[in-house]
Amino acid sequence: MSELLITLLTIGLVVAAIPGVCNYLILLERKMAAWMQDRVGPNRVGPYGLFQPLADGLKLLLKEEVIPKHVDRTLFVLAPMISVFTTILALAVVPFGPVEDAPSWLRFIIAPGIDIGLVFIFAITSLAVYGIILGGWSSNNKYSALGSMRASAQVVSYEIPLGMSVVGIALLSGTLNLENILTQQAQGGILAWNIWVQPLACLLFFTSSLAEANRLPFDLAECEQELVGGWHTEYSALKWALFFLGEYTHVITISFLTSIVFFGGWHFPGIAEPDSAYMFAWLVKLLVLLTKVFICILLIMMLRWTIPRFRFDQLMELAWKVMIPLGLVNVVMVMFVQQFQLSRLWLVAGSVSIFAAWGFLSATAKRAHLSGGKKRPATHTTGHGHGAHAAGHGAGGH
Amino acid sequence: MAKREKSVMYVEEPEIGFWEATFVPAIVEGLRTTMKHLVSRETVTEQYPEQKPDLPLHYRGVHRLNRDEKDRVKCVACMLCATACPAHCITIEAAPAPKDWPDRDKFPQTFELDELRCIYCGMCEEACPVDAIELTHIYDLTGQTRDELLYTKDKLLNVFDKTRDNPRDPVRTGRGVLGPASEFQALPTLGPATQVATSDRSAKIGTAGVIESGTGNVTDGGARS
Amino acid sequence: MMEWIQNHPLALGGLVVWAAGLLWLMPGSHVKVSRPVVPGLILSAVGIVLLCLSVGKPQPEFADEVLFWLFGGGSLICGVLMITSRNPAYGALWFALATLCTCGLFLLRSAPFLAAATVIVYAGAVIVTFLFVIMLAQQSGAVAYDQKSSHSVIAILASFVLLGGIAMAIQSQGEQPEPISADQAPAGNPLSIATAEQPVGQLKGLGKSLFGDYLFAVELAGTLLLIASVGAIAIAPRREQGTL
Questions:
Q1: Which ipTM value was assigned to this complex?
Q2: pLDDT for A178 beyond 60
Q3: Beta carbons within 8 Å of A285's beta carbon, 6+ residues apart
Q4: Which CATH architecture has domain B63-177?
Q5: Where are the domains of chain A?
Q6: Distance (Å) from the C-alpha of residue B7 to the closest C-alpha of chain A?
Q7: Rounded Cα gap, residues A290 and B99, in angstroms
Q8: So what CATH class is C2-140+148-173?
Q9: Is the pLDDT of residue A339 over 70?
Q10: Shortest distance, CA C243 to any CA of chain A (angstroms)
């Protein structure tokens, strides 16, 4: 079969699968949210609510498309398209199966052999924020504008730790190509998974990609309690749905990247080895990879109901004061190990000790901050805590 | 000031230790909690159409007009409910009571209650001197037109017939006997319940405490000044 | 230089015509009365075509040719729209689009890393920051001073002198610029360091070039940026508790 046909088939498969998968992920998320809150979740449409996504999709298709009079029409219509287009485009270089063992009629990656795979993904996903910014700006609504301003600041900040976290991986594997990163891990066995040598980078990567995707606990751009709906306040029907299709596609991309870069991709000892030669080995490898991705998605969904949303200054503090320094130190550590040809075990010890040192530093800083407040005389009248306390007692005593 | 200070409790900000600063125990603890709920399948959800809700006894639903023991409408058309109603949803047209109803002067010729305007506050029930209007436990009130939900006397009496035997909707007050107001031989002197300054607009109105919307002194005075 | 002008009257004419068209399109000081757009557009288009005709031909392959004209023309048109649009937010968006088109050109010249890095830095960060500032400053429509261009004559003169210089430099390298990945690039060209196995557009070649041949320049640029960011932090206003 010709190369062109296979490419078209793969593109068609991905583009067709994404909306369906996203629909059912939304059902799963609603179910999980319900279970975590001791509820039942959607259970009316079809057995166990399995046809709920179809009903939702139909509803969103048939709903009235409201375009308010005060919006900037062109950008208002364009914004959801950008959101979906960029997130799906990022999937082009993600291998979603065992690329080498693929059957002849299918290829598990749309664009194979891209030298700059990871950088490409970061470049494209950094464009995804345009959907949010333009949507918020063109809505001509203060809540939307506030939401999109938060989104722009957040994405620009979190791009740095995101890029920094994979620099270590790139140095260790000597490539940015996702297929090569995966193959190296698979050939080295389970101990070659990058999670063992770069646990800190994995943590940073996962956290900052959540922030990039605007997922909880970092969904400051749409936080309902303060901003009505944030950047999508004025959106309705299919345009609104497109925004969320984009967000869920982003979640899928994150999960694929985390599984491939840090958890060995389709490799699992005993089941899916690079030299597995039994029939349908490609199917087993595909299933292993998809299971890892699914677990990652489940974790993301659980985190949504576990960690409360950050305050905006906390969000910025986390990016600039915690994650960027940690990422930088991690990169320097990897450089040391590579330069002096040290054992990779040093990386494990280094990651743990960097994390511990940061925890110690931050605890010390917090304690110093608190005791600093104690020493300060009660000059600031509006302040709460010890100063006001002492002043109050003085007034009460006399 | 001093008193208020005593009622204020100051809380010390807890010390941040090493583990708290790394966030790790907090996140693990949180994940454990969510996981616990995720795995345990006890739900608090009520499957509504199949499983009816267990409403509290003081629930305020659709109104009914009570009947007395002779199956006559208990209402004496005193207009207290219409007056008390904050939503102005009750319209009563009174007529002289039939000759064979010796215990009252008036009875409601028509009694209309707009269930769509009603805010279900229960003030009519509080105001009624003869316990004629009551709120029942019927909560699933639906209709396809506005007229359907404009409850007339017949409909309201019908609600009584449907709910009188329901243990959740007992005839709560008076048990079918007319209330104490029906036994008054002479009316007490009319006057405002409290002292009202003569400049107050409510003192200028014929009936103390009743401000009719759209007519009379109130709106005109407002427009002139 | 005079020689080059005499040899390429077409290029000079194109530059002049394009500059005139652009000057016509620039939002002037009279915000209320806007000039008709068509003559400026026609002048610019004629100038662009003349310049492109004189500077050189694109690659012979059909797909390459289509893409080249798409990206090249797109970046020029977006650039013109960027400096002529009255709404600063639209200006920023056209800038983003022009950047993306330029990245497309980088890709055509088989420099994918450069393209991706440009997207991240310019489209993903710099223009997002522009938009952020524009949104902060312009909650209720554009203000008058943002709708007109100041010093448009000087700006156009300077930029077109630069453009002419670039065109001259390109042509003095030969009528047909060599593709970057080719290993027979002329000596003296800094790109000649790349070899066939490690073209400078690819990751390895780029890394070797940056941190081997141009280490001093890279370090210098890095130090400059560090100084700039330290300076920015030093300038930022401070209050008693924390910054801002």
A1: 0.74
A2: yes
A3: A97, A98, A101, A266, A267, A272, A276
A4: 2-Layer Sandwich (3.30)
A5: 1-62, 63-372
A6: 11
A7: 86
A8: mainly alpha
A9: yes
A10: 12
